[in-house]
Amino acid sequence: APAAHALAVRDLQAWYDESHILHGINFDVAPGEVVTLLGRNGAGKTTTLRAIMGLIGKRTGSVQFENRELIALPARAIAKLGIAFCPEERGIFSSLSVDENLMLPPVIKPGGLSREDVLTMFPNLRERLSSQGTKLSGGEQQMLAIARILRTGAKFLLLDEPTEGLAPVIVQQIGRTLATLKNQGFTIVLVEQNFHFAASVADRHYVVEQGRVIDMIPNTEIQTNLGKLHAYLGV
Ligand code: ATP
């Protein structure tokens, strides 16, 4: 039977050494959905993505991806199932050119976009093919990071603050990219500080506070929940 949820996270707890950071994260993502994790700095959003991806040594609870349990799997095995993680630092090779970055995706599954496909999606990158990663603008780096992820063939994307530090026009471009991916059937979990951006791309929002998910707000109910959201986010 098809999975009702692409991802189901239940009582996910995680530790950095002796520090207990996640105290029981619960949320679901339906196939084809875009959801955000919102919350203040230090709430545990990045740690949640890292724990799902198997990048935190000590984690307990359950993370089911298409009905398969991930909690005990290493990151490599999780990537092979078709989940890709784009860290806040973007994870591109700064000493390599754009073209070399596009030819070195981390794991390839059938169905990954070709070099030509991603260059059609991100025309700016085509003009920068021979440029070194360090020479790119923040926006170009983010596009390259997403392009690399699309090369892998993953259809489930974990994106950590893709709009951080980017100019408004680039933020809009990334928003259009995510809308295109959603139309193509990708499922996306996004950590966001940019609340307006989150509202423009997501179906639902989970609020993370002190290592727990404390609320869920459908995007259609954002306007009636602005007061609550401002209180959660301290904005
Ligand atoms: P931010 O937007 O600041 O990244 P966040 O909600 O993503 O916020 P996390 O990065 O998940 O928060 O951090 C949650 C907590 O874990 C914070 O208290 C942070 O100090 C702590 N933490 C993060 N990384 C480490 C680490 N490598 N070792 C120890 N503690 C860490």
3D structure, described in words:
This protein is an alpha/beta fold. The chain has nine helices and ten strands. The chain has helices at residues 45-52, 75-80, 98-103, 115-121, 123-127, 138-151, 168-183, 195-201, 226-233, and strands at residues 7-16, 19-29, 34-38, 58-65, 68-69, 83-86, 156-160, 187-191, 204-209, 212-218. A six-stranded mixed β-sheet has the order 6-7-8-3-9-10, with helices on both faces. A four-stranded antiparallel β-sheet has the order 2-1-4-5, with helices on one face. It starts with 6 loop residues before the first strand and ends with a helix. This is ATP-binding cassette domain-containing protein. Pfam families: ABC_tran (PF00005). Belongs to the ABC transporter superfamily.
List the helices and strands and how they pair.
Layout: E1 7-16, E2 19-29, E3 34-38, H1 45-52, E4 58-65, E5 68-69, H2 75-80, E6 83-86, H3 98-103, H4 115-121, H5 123-127, H6 138-151, E7 156-160, H7 168-183, E8 187-191, H8 195-201, E9 204-209, E10 212-218, H9 226-233
Parallel strand pairs: 3-8, 3-9, 6-7, 7-8
Antiparallel strand pairs: 1-2, 1-4, 4-5, 9-10
Helix pairs in contact: 4-6
This protein binds adenosine-5'-triphosphate.
